[in-house]
Amino acid sequence: MNVLRTDIDATNATLTIQVAEADYSERVEKTIKDYRKKVNVPGFRPGMVPVGLIRKMYGRGIVADEINRVLQEALFNYIRENNLDILGEPLPNETEQKAVDFENDKEFEFKFDIAIAPEFEITLNKKDSLKCYDIAVTEKMIDDQVKNYAGRFGSYTQTEEVTEKDVIKGSMLELNADGSVNEGGIKVDDAVVSPAYMKDEEQKRAFVGAKKGSVVVFNPQKAFANEAEVASMLKIAKDRAKDVTADFSFEIKSITHYEESPVDQTLFDKVYGEGKVTTEEEFRKKVAEGIKGSYKLDSDYKFGIDAKALIVKKMDKVVLPEAFLKRWVLATNEKMTEETLEREFGAMIEDLKWYLAKNKIAKANGLKVEASDIEAYARKMAQIQFAQYGMTSVPDDVLDNFAKDMLKKENAAQNMAEKALEEKVFEVVKNSVKVAEQEVSVEDFNKLFE
């Protein structure tokens, strides 16, 4: 077998693979023998089908399959042995490929187009500047988070009198215009309602102050903001809810009152673990640190966006094989249309430039991603997810198991390896350029994304 490379320009080349009969004949004969053992042909016992008949029935397809395997091996062996940094995957040549006759020909020639990553340099120095934003934590933010924790770790109690935020359970009956029960009307045995969600103040006042065991008359259509809420409460179809305009009686069977947790040692222990915080001052300081840590992630994200933009701009003059890349995207993504590709191609090129630059910076600085880096990144993602639900003191074993489960998902380990490498590259960028620290309010920081 012979592989010839023809360079078209700096980033495009054609590989010509010449396949002789000796390159595939042994494989073909072995496959035909395997077919003979397995194939069922009427009139012949299993394993006794003549080789000539197998060759006549399946020979052309077997030859095509084995040559295809030989081709794939030759292609990727050549790329690996010659250390070619290719973009995408080899594509069959569309202009010079000769017709192939697997039935009559013995020797074949195949041409494949490849795209080669361009040569370029990335220079970073103190003439380049980036901003690193320090998002200010205010007393109001701390107050809001403390209140959030107090609400999250509050308690439910059963009470005898309704307040606005209570959850009321009971039974509902549809009434006639004269206030009598509509015997053929809607009945709900396990209705749930909360005055806090009622849009109409008059309907809300009907419940507030009512006692357990009492009967309240109200109008669901007036009480709630939309038909979906009415349908949900009455357990009927949404399209039917708009026609229900009658009053209902509601017999109150239970009243559940939610009380926020007091800001005391019990709350401190629930949020940060037993004995980790012992005073309200320490609690507020810990809350502030948590907010600061969350904003640090946001600030790092913004720095990453700006660092990418800086580096991609430095690659303005780097020429990529765009025609090949468009062919490759369309060939490997059956859902992609030419219209969509044209619309999104600019962003794809920017992403590719960043990918090439990231790997070049990593290589130049000896950056590698070990299994421990991937696990650490997964653990950080797990912490972020738990923190979104207010869980800031998750035990180490729970975090570790959650992270391991995340890594079991398809492509998760590879994606996190890329992100871990990206973080290392950003650290190199940060140490290479001039970084200006700037304190901003969260409002001004958010405007940076508008």
How would you characterize this protein structure?
With 450 residues, the protein is α+β, with helices and mostly antiparallel strands. It has three domains: 2-116, 2-Layer Sandwich (Alpha-Beta Plaits), CATH 3.30.70.1050; 129-144 and 274-447, Orthogonal Bundle (Trigger factor, domain 2); 155-259, Chitinase A, domain 3, CATH 3.10.50. 50% of the residues lie in helices and 18% in strands. It has helices spanning 21-38, 51-81, 139-152, 201-207, 220-223, 227-234, 238-241, 265-272, 280-314, 322-332, 338-364, 371-388, 396-408, 412-432, 442-447, and strands at residues 2-7, 12-19, 86-92, 108-116, 129-135, 155-158, 167-174, 187-193, 215-218, 248-259, 434-440. Helix 10 crosses helix 11 (338-364). The longest helix is centred in the middle third of the chain and has 35 residues, at 280-314. The two termini are 58 Å apart. The model has no long low-confidence stretch (mean pLDDT 92).
